[in-house]
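Sample intake — tRNA N6-adenosine threonylcarbamoyltransferase
Collected from: Edaphobacter acidisoli
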Amino acid sequence: GLILGIESSCDETAAAVVRAGSTALSNVVASQMSLHANYGGVVPELASREHLRNIVPVVREALAQAKVALADLDAVAVTEGPGLAGALLVGITYAKALSFGLGKPLVAVNHLEGHIHAVLLEARQRAGVPMELPLLALVVSGGHTHLYLAEQAANDTWTYRNVGRTVDDAAGEAYDKVAKLLGLGYPGGPWIDALAPHGNPRAVPFAFGQIKTRATKAAQAEHSKHSSSQKPGKPAPAFDFSFSGIKTAARRYVETHHMKPGIEYRHAELAANPQIKPQSPEAVQLCNPQTLDLIASFQHAVVGNLLRQTFAAAEAFGARGIIVSGGVAANRELRRRFQAEADRRSLPVAFPSLALSTDNAAMIAAAAWPKFLAGNFAPEDLGATPQLRLGQQ
Ligand code: ATP
Ligand code: MG
Ligand code: FE
């Protein structure tokens, strides 16, 4: 079973050949990051044009690296959303033409489901990490902080329920905003990750208040199944997150302690000096101890909140394993604390490697595999769905 995956939802043009949803024979990514960096964000028109330019050579390279001819493929898989409409359309149009020309089925994949399967693809290859459904997946990045419960459907495909999400900022967004406030570089995650071990995580008390939760249908259904003793009329909580409060608390702390970057403290030198990397000793030396304490306390609070909600949801839904993906999953404190808590509960936990944590097509081909086996093919007139959601809300 050879599937060619194609991904073009944002600023990466990617193609990969994956065998049986578990072995990546190739994984080619053409990133446009440096192009968009000049504009401080992804420019949709430029992204579409770059995808058009890259799609043919990227697919050709993926086939060449896998030593696979077009005729050997069993299916073509493509990201249908969420993402930029024009960018998605380049991949979809190309995949449809290939599938039609080859007479092979087309499989449509949700990008977020792809991120979950990126972790599974590797976990399956690593012996000793059994990942059995139901699984709880935390997708945590600059644009998402979502909890999904992945379950087996009747035909062996997967179904998803969104059982928690941020009610305001994404966790990565909070990292980026607090880093900016302190005059650190962009993106802020790697800076805070590198500097936090040099501060005292208990120096600044960040409290997470009770979030006003919405009650998801999924949580309610599960709730009524498990707790018949519960008083009626009290909705089961969703496992939601909130990060705007901690961002505001950090700002207030900086203001009341007169921690103006570039004046009393020399943070601005970090942002202005591209030679200084997050991991370099100079970065630590340029930070005041008070700043390091704030950084350490912020990260401790954010990771603690992610940990608490994720494991509470895992317990409530009887998950048999935990998956963490998205840019923030690179965070070392997050990995350490999630691993320790999972070990304590004898639950397997899996994170993506660096190569599969950013957008790629191997994850799209892997996610397509159970759909392919179930004959769950896309219609010939498949279009882009920029706001596509994952699973029942
Ligand atoms: P999405 O993929 O949801 O549309 P995105 O493209 O912003 O959003 P990613 O590229 O997956 O998301 O991740 C980028 C985010 O991850 C940034 O907010 C960045 O600060 C954060 N990040 C990267 N490395 C780390 C780290 N080591 N610790 C914490 N956060 C990190
Ligand atoms: Mg990104
Ligand atoms: Fe992504």
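Post-analysis note: The chain has a mean pLDDT of 88.
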